[in-house]
Amino acid sequence: MKEKIKELTLLLLYLTSWEEDDFPEDVDVKRSWKGYPFEILDELREEDFIFGSSRAKSVYIKEKGIEEAKKLMEKYINQEEN
């Protein structure tokens, strides 16, 4: 169950994210509010999906996290449509 919570947290971070203009155009980075359990956010940070200051109210989703979130969309969202 913990793994599903982690996957769904990453998916929600992605689905509620916005494009950030602070990075070069060739870097695909999104930002999202981090109103999720800190333990899960720490694990996502350790797996290199997200980054950001522990003091900030938002996190950046790295390209690796975006790619994983897109796979999770297929797993969780598109399965309902089939």
Which characteristics define this entry?
alpha+beta, Arc Repressor Mutant, subunit A, 4 strands, 4 helices, 82 residues
In words, what does this structure look like?
The protein has 82 residues and is α+β, with helices and mostly antiparallel strands. It has a single domain (2-81), classed as Arc Repressor Mutant, subunit A (Orthogonal Bundle). The chain has helices at residues 2-15, 38-46, 63-76, 78-81; strands at 18-19, 30-33, 50-51, 58-61. Strands 1-2-4-3 form a 4-stranded antiparallel β-sheet. The model has no long low-confidence stretch (mean pLDDT 87).
Task: Note the topology.
Elements: H1 2-15, E1 18-19, E2 30-33, H2 38-46, E3 50-51, E4 58-61, H3 63-76, H4 78-81
Antiparallel strand pairs: 1-2, 2-4, 3-4
Helix pairs in contact: 1-2, 1-3
Here the CATH topology equals Arc Repressor Mutant, subunit A
Number of spatially distinct domains: 1
Spatial extent as radius of gyration:
13 Å
Provide the spatial order of strands within the biggest beta sheet: 1-2-4-3
Strand content of the residues, in percent? Answer: 5-15%
Largest sheet: 4 strands, antiparallel
Net shape: globular
> Counting H and I runs of at least 4 residues, what is the number of helices?
4
End-to-end separation: 23 Å
- Derived from helix and strand composition plus strand pairing, the structural class reads alpha+beta
CATH top level assignment = Mainly Alpha
The residue fraction in helices comes out at: 40-55%
Sequence of secondary-structure elements = HEEHEEHH
Overall mean pLDDT:
87
CATH architecture annotation:
Orthogonal Bundle
Query: Poorly predicted ranges (pLDDT <50, ≥5 residues)?
Result: none
| Strand count | 4
